[in-house]
Amino acid sequence: MDLVPALDEPLKKVLGPATAKVMAEHLGLHTVGDLLHHYPRRYEERGQLTHLADLPMDEHVTVVAQVADARLHSFASAKAPRGKGQRLEVTITDGSGRLQLVFFGAGVHKPHKELLPGTRAMFAGKVSVFNRRLQLAHPAYELLKGDAEEAIDTWAGALIPIYPATAKLESWKIGKAVQTVLPSAQEAVDPLPDALREGRGLASLPEALLKIHRPHTKADIGAARDRLKWDEAFVLQVALARRRHADAQLPAVPRRPAPDGLLAAFDDRLPFTLTEGQQKVSREIFDDLATDHPMHRLLQGEVGSGKTMVALRAMLAVVDAGGQAAMLAPTEVLAQQHHRSVVEMMGELAEGGMLGGAEHATKVVLLTGSMGTAARRQALLDLATGEAGIVIGTHALIEDRVQFLDLGLVVVDEQHRFGVEQRDALRGKGKQPPHLLVMTATPIPRTVAMTVFGDLETSVLDQLPAGRSPIASHVVPAADKPHFLARTWERVREEVSQGHQAYVVCPRIGDEEDDPRAAKKKSAEDEAEKRPPLAVLDMADQLAGGPLKGLRVEVLHGRMQPDDKDAVMRRFAAGETDVLVATTVIEVGVNVPNATVMVIMDADRFGVSQLHQLRGRVGRGSAPGLCLLVSEMPEASAARQRLNAVAATLDGFELSRIDLEQRREGDVLGQAQSGARTSLRVLAVIEDEEIIAEAREEAAALVAADPDITGLPGLRTALDALLDEEREQYLEKG
To answer: Mind listing the pLDDT tens digit for each residue in 354-407?
Structure first.
């Protein structure tokens, strides 16, 4: 007997090389254990048929249905000029809906014999539309006879598992492969401590694997899922708890601001008082900075809640204490904007070493990839000598040549755009690990924060600064009520006549026609509507020549030259432009307090958090903001419900929950995992909030008592598997 443990056995030994190759390439499954953890997506009941009406377009589906009729047609074609071409059309039904199957050429003979009216089978294929009807072309199928030996054996249970499948490997073939390896489930080593499992009445791991793949009742499925969710939540939270524990052991230099230093001088200059929220979050940060192990804090706040101010005060506190602070921004535009606003807010305090600089002043330098050689050389010199206390930059900060005299704090803006390698590279530039503050403007539901950023303490800014005005939001149903759209443009004119400005946002630029790829990539929704999304260039012409005639209308989009973009933004900020027609380039960081109206065309084509970010560009001054979400989608559609939700609340945390419930967590845990299978197979971040919170407590207690997890070999194995497979994609992302 080979000494390879049963679950580590490569699939090619058990299933044969051909099947194993498809499983590895298309599903990322390599061992018996991988296959056992490839859980069914759902279950069909033997007596019941699938709802054909709910099938998603362009997706690979498996359905259980009954043949209603089958017809063989002859036709003429280039290959069969004399009317010898054959096409078999089979209609299947679930009792209410119908779906057409089509087979051509030599492929018609077998199904013609087998798919007789009344036959039940499982069908798998890609859903497409032909002549406005749903169809599957050349689907694979498996008859559910119930008389042949194998069929009785395979489908003995009333519940048929339907697996996540691919065009190369149908669900029932995966099911048969699972049957082959299922006996090995007995060897699965349980990662949960016995006390935890028994205390919560959870099934053992072998039992859960058996029940999820071969359930006899729905209760079996429920028991299996409850147990497997705990596995995922607990192993992940133990991994995060160990990271927190390890970070707490690292040494860091405590940074306490001087009582009458740079921070005090800055606070005295402020023309406003900080909000209660800003004061509370600042206290949390200053407490962390004063400890002798590195701070790891996530600062999340609404658009415009004043995160930059909180981060700047933390940087000043570190400079006060003799250290340097670095702020990492995802794009050059944002880095430049942060640099401009920091220098403006600090005034002469940012002119260290210059004539006219205040006594506590420091130097604030910018470092980006496109800077000229001389400016770049000077910035690098200022960092190495300690002349510059604050540096703001892009990835250019991470390069080997960048040396700090004493890096004490790293602030990362828009966290989700940075991988950990980059963050660690920057942290490695300190003599001891610097403190870390991560900021995000996309509010994250508490559970997602606990799951994705579980190694960071979280601070939340949910209060807007004084002087910010409320934003009213309304959906404009352009197709049902065209006069509402006419009224939209009247509102824009009214605001402009009162000296204010407006944004009009469109999904497209409008010069893509020459791009052959743009023509091909039409989604099913576009096909159904037969109208491409509205474009900035067309919209600007229509408005300037029509409803907004006489107003100063300009365009802004991502394909313009950087200098042109900058000039347009400057004119808009200076009030020389009335209406800016733009793509989502204005989504992050643009601040024009005089702009009061935001009209979003084809609003249904944007995500919830994107709409929320865009809306945050108005209402930044003393006049109230207005956001109009224009859509042609019918009232009953999911898209309209999404827009209604955005119009109904300004609470970004509430919206992020709605967004997550609609999209599932793949996107949220997303960018880090594009292309990889998500490490959450049964755990749903929003629905399983309680499990995640309880697992976090259990994990923290376990790691505090036994940081090396010496007593639990099963848990160690599970951690190695998680960290090995997901290390880059998941934990290290925090």
So the answer is: 655 567 789 999 998 888 889 999 999 999 999 999 999 988 887 778 889 999
Order of strands across the sheet with 363-367? 363-367, 388-393, 324-328, 407-413, 435-440, 296-301, 457-461
Closest CA to 579 of 551, 603, 539: 551
Provide the 10 A C-beta neighbour count for residue 414: 18
What is the Cα–Cα distance from 558 to 569, expressed in whole angstroms? 12
User: Residue for token digits 């755009």?
Assistant: 417
User: What does 130-149 look like in DSSP terms, one character per residue?
Assistant: ETTEEEEES-EEEE--S-SH
3-state helix, strand, coil in the chain (%, to 5): 45, 20, 35
Residues 91-98: what's their mean pLDDT? Answer: 85
* pLDDT, mean of residues 58-66: 80
First to last CA, the chain: 43
Tell me how far apart the alpha carbons of residues 95 and 76 are, in angstroms, rounded to a whole number: 34
With beta carbons less than 8 A apart as the criterion, state whether 554 and 569 touch.
no
Cβ atoms of residues 402 and 383 within 8 Å: yes
Q: What region does 644 belong to: left with phi over 0, alpha with psi -120 to 50, or beta?
A: alpha
pTM of the model: 0.68
Q: Which of 81, 98, 80 is nearest to 89 (CA)?
A: 98
Tell me: the pLDDT tens digits for 228-253? 999 888 988 898 888 888 888 888 89
Taking the C-alpha atoms of residue 387 and residue 218, their distance in angstroms, rounded to an integer, is 68
Question: In sequence order, what are the residues at sequence separation of 6 or more whose Cβ sits closer than 8 angstroms to the Cβ of residue 16?
Answer: none
- Using alpha carbons, select from 578, 497, 575 the residue that is nearest to residue 540: 578
Whether the predicted pLDDT of 178 surpasses 60: yes
- Give 359-372 pLDDT, tens digit per residue: 778 999 999 888 88
Candidates 250, 279, 273, 392; CA nearest to 328 is: 392
Q: What is the mean pLDDT of residues 530-534?
A: 72
Q: Is the confidence at residue 113, as pLDDT, over 60? A: yes
Q: Give 636: exposed, middle or buried? Use CB within 10 Å, 0-12, 13-18, 19+.
A: exposed
